[in-house]
Amino acid sequence: xxxxxxxxxxxxxxxxxxxxxxxxxxxxxxxxxxxxxxxxxxxxxxxxxxxxxxxxxxxxxxxxxxxxxxxxxxxxxxxxxxxxxxxxxxxxxxxxxxxxxxxxxxxxxxxxxxxxxxxxxxxxxxxxxxxxxxxxxxxxxxxxxxxxxxxxxxxxxxxxxxxxxxxxxxxxxxxxxxxxxxxxxxxxxxxxxxxxxxxxxxxxxxxxxxxxxxxxxxxxxxxxxxxxxxxxxxxxxxxxxxxxxxxxxxxxxxxxxxxxxxxxxxxxxxxxxxxxxxxxxxxxxxxxxxxxxxxxxxxxxxxxxxxxxxxxxxxxxxxxxxxxxxxxxxxxxxxxxxxxxxxxxxxxxxxxxxxxxxxxxxxxxxxxxxxxxxxxxxxxxxxxxxxxxxxxxxxxxxxxxxxxxxxxxxxxxxxxxxxxxxxxxxxxxxxxxxxxxxxxxxxxxxxxxxxxxxxxxxxxxxxxxxxxxxxxxxxxxxxxxxxxxxxxxxxxxxxxxxxxxxxxxxxxxxxxxxxxxxxxxxxxxxxxxxxxxxxxxxxxxxxxxxxxxxxxxxxxxxxxxxxxxxxxxxxxxxxxxxxxxxxxxxxxxxxxxxxxxxxxxxxxxxxxxxxxxxxxxxxxxxxxxxxxxxxxxxxxxxxxxxxxxxxxxxxxxxxxxxxxxxxxxxxxxxxxxxxxxxxxxxxxxxxxxxxxxxxxxxxxxxxxxxxxxxxxxxxx
Length: 716
Known about the structure:
Elements: H1 5-19, H2 21-24, H3 26-35, H4 45-70, H5 73-97, H6 102-128, E1 131-133, E2 136-138, H7 143-159, H8 181-193, H9 199-224, H10 233-242, H11 251-261, H12 279-285, H13 287-307, H14 313-333, H15 335-354, H16 358-382, H17 391-395, E3 401-403, H18 409-415, H19 422-430, H20 432-440, H21 442-456, H22 463-481, E4 482-484, H23 491-496, H24 498-513, H25 528-560, H26 576-593, E5 599-601, H27 612-616, E6 620-621, H28 636-651, H29 658-668, E7 672-676, H30 680-683, E8 696-697, E9 701-705
Parallel strand pairs: 5-6, 5-7
Antiparallel strand pairs: 1-2, 3-4, 7-9, 8-9
Helix pairs in contact: 1-9, 3-4, 3-5, 4-5, 4-8, 4-9, 4-13, 4-14, 6-9, 6-10, 6-25, 7-8, 7-9, 8-9, 9-10, 9-13, 10-24, 12-13, 13-14, 13-15, 13-16, 14-15, 14-16, 15-16, 15-22, 21-24, 22-24
């Protein structure tokens, strides 16, 4: 069996990246041409490509969702039709312009940006695939999140839309409750490739393309949103793209924390629980949130452009419909980002109406209403009740959002303010400037400079300046004083802040292009010392992003080398590389020996939490954790009635003999049991694990078929 997993990933992931063009480039090109989005037909090729990707990200998720729900074969017909139309358009334009200059000139203009795109693609792939050293395999740190998304992508490929919760099966499936639209697209790519690309490799390729979408929307805003956007757009776009490599001043607190603990920490943002993630961190950890941001921004840019140029009624109707589709997609891509952006849209509609800009206000209102209507089926699916809830949950309902000032972890811990209340809120409010300076660094300085300039020219503000300020202010206020309560991490405050970060990025790009760090800084009101400070924050910001990439790629290896504390969520020992290699081998073999609808089960009460199944198995689980992951869909009461017996299979060595295993599997609808060296039954040589013939076995795992379904002869 081939065990060169890194080579496999390095071949298959670029293949998936190329296949994503059929999903996130071709449809957007076709729609933009047919609808003439941003005067698409009059643009040079590089601009068309920049428009096509965000349009695809905005339109394809919701169209695919509805087509798949209505008639699954229509999804293939849709993308096939897009490819056919794309080929016709490109062929016709090639005949018309092949002897001219535009195509060559377009690529010459875009060459620096293509270099940035190539650099991002290379870094993302090398950082996110498994790294192999002999018979040791090291996944990236982001695998804790990617395991979940890989399972969702696999579930969509197996069960369609709406997908089933891949983490809970009790003789019946339960629909998935999650904002899973991004993984619909990953699933399409995985299905196009067939066995040539795994769901995990498709998810990694999706991360690459979410970054491409962000790299595309930046120059579009610099060109079509900012006043005088045509001026030196190539240079400004390159600066804007390069600034995505800049994060805040996280390098200082993370290095201090590592020196204090004498160990490497898993990622650069770990020093603050209410983090403001840098662009590199966000693109690699939560690409679907980047996709949601891009969809929101593209929808608004379409409305903005329509309102600020002569447009017929037909053009306005088309713009409203397209923007509504994009906003609807955004809800299914990233709920919290879209909630913040929707609030901005409501605020800006009011501001525009009061400023007698009723055209843009009307477009926003109509598109927002249409997006709400289009979202109803997905909202009903997301909030559908699928069984009983626990008594605790029933007796203590909580709202998903609450008022609370953004936390500053270092101060909270130092002062013992960890229980909420007015003291913690007041302290965090006072320390907020330092909190944001460390988190934003250069971008905070750019924001302060821009606000000072806007205040100085407040009587002559352009509409785009006021709009950008409104966008940033809405995001900052909401994400500073409101936090989410669904999980321990403040996802609302962390992800919703991306809207403000985008505005700061655009401002910073404009300032640098305008000579902020040039020799003559008198027009900016910046002294030599302040100029050095700005340069220092830029350098530290780039260094912080590089350090984050290093942590994503090498932290599990550093754990094996004893360069950090032994993190129980990662591994119980210093053998994470050997264990990962062995378990990927085991699951790869199981995929060959079992049908796609087989039900697997590992220890649901394992420590560390089992990510290997999610990364490599591509199969349904009976119960992923002790709670059966019913938060993603399912009946909590049904889980409680089954989970004890499932846990006993792995935790109680004397509970079952070999015959009892088959009976339990029949009752629990399990086809394959996967036992690992960290399970109690493994460690007892008298347990059933050592008296039953495994399907697949190695030093770290043993897999058994059980119940009445024979897996050994079910190879695909």
